[in-house]
Structures are given as structure tokens and as C-alpha cells.
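Morning!

This is the sequence you dropped in the shared folder:
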Amino acid sequence: MGADKKQRILIVEDDRPLAGGLCRALQNEKTETVSCHTLREAEKLLGEVRPDAQPDDPVRKTKPGFDLVVLDVNLPDGNGFDFLEKMKNKYDICIVMLTANDMETDIVAGLEAGADDYITKPFSLAVLRARVATQLRRVAASAGNDPASEAADNLAKQSLSGPDHTGAAENRAAQESLRGGGWITDGDYRFHFLKMLFYHGEEQIELSKGEQKLLRLLIENRGITLTRDRLLECIWSVDAAFVDENTLSVTVKRLRDKLGAQNRIRTVYGIGYRWE
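The structure's back. C-alpha cells below.
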């Protein structure tokens, strides 16, 4: 791959703030990202001539406009699975599904339809970057370029050094302690969810049921970004469809203020929240 050539990623996601967040997360000096919100827009963009295509390239008009597509399933003008199959039949292109459809049958259907990878929401940005980097290396290798492409390497480095990276062993220990009803200790914080005891240093904090559920989800998934939709579903269960999104923002703010956790509960713009 030439030094001035970037690998291009198209993000097809109808949640505009999430699409913007994904663009920022996957972009670096060797990777260009573009987002769109419908399948019609996506098909048009894929059919355009690449901006870096050479005039004498015999396949410049039939080559897809992007190296990789991150594709949602539920879109305003159609089903991502149908689009996946159509694009795979038309182009030699890498497609990674990123969707809340996390049933085993959905994952199998996506992979059988030709998806190169299938990632479910909520997701860790570190894991997303690493898996996209793997696919970009494969794309570079199949194009006759250096398989360890700079774009892929940059994304892989971001996945390891960014704020989303966390030790799996640490999270497993926290989850086992939660299941066993024991104490969770994290710096100056001590939590016992079974006994509903929450301390910041020596100060005991009173938390509402919603705040307790939010805290538990964040602690169980330390370093992993949880989407707003998934938090709404998990905290308010069957009432999630009737809960105003502002309710989550208010609950997050109250939990931050009560725990003094402004630097622990981080907002990932356009996506959700995580415990650092």
C-alpha cells in the first residue's frame, strides 16, 4: 500500500450519534471513515469510484468505493442481512456486522450470508478496533499489499493502548465476586451489591435501585463501553420502551455525583458509558 493511500471504512448505522462515535473510533492517519444511515446511501457510496483510484486502473469503475463496511441489521429502508448478501454477490468486499441482534440464529444467519465478522451490541471499542484491524490486514494481503498494513496496525495499537482496554482477568474476578455476593474493591471504592452497601473511602453512599443496577452493570464490564440502548433495556427491563432517554442521563449524573466518580464513569460520545 502506498504511503499516501488510506484504507476506507463505510459505517452503515441509522443511529447518527453512534455512527459519528464509530467514525471517530476507527479513524486514524491511515484509515478514512465515512458514515451513512440508509442502505440506499450505502449502495450509492459503494458504487462510486474511489477517490484514490488511478485513471488507468482497469477495474476502477467496478471496484467498491471502500475496503470494509461496518453494517447494522435494522435500518430504516431494509434489512442488513439482505443487503449483505447483495453486496457480497456484487463486490469482493469485507463486511463486519455490528448489531443488537445477538441471538445465536442471527449470528449464524449473518455468517452464512457472508459476513466476515459479527459483533453484537453492547461492545468494547477496543475489541471492535482489534477485529476491524484483523479484517483490514486480510484485505491488504488479498490486494497484494503488505498484510501488516499501517492502517490495521494503527487500529490494533489503539485497541491496546486506548482507554477501552481492560484486563479480562480483572473483569472475571469482579463478575465472580458479584455472583458470589462478595465485596468489590476498586481504588477508594468498595461495593457489596447483595447487602446494598456502597462506600467511597469511609463514606457510605445511599443509592436508589436504578443507580445500583447502573453501577453493577458498569462494574461488571469495567473498561467496556455499554451503549445507551442496552443500559436502558437492562436497568428498566420491560419498561425500557417507555422510559425517556433523559432518565438514563439523569441517573448517570446522580451516580457520578454521589460517588464522586466524574473521572470513573466516562461518557463515550454518541455511544454510551463505561467505568474506567
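Headline: Residues 160-169 have pLDDT under 50 and may be disordered.

More detail when I'm at my desk.
O.
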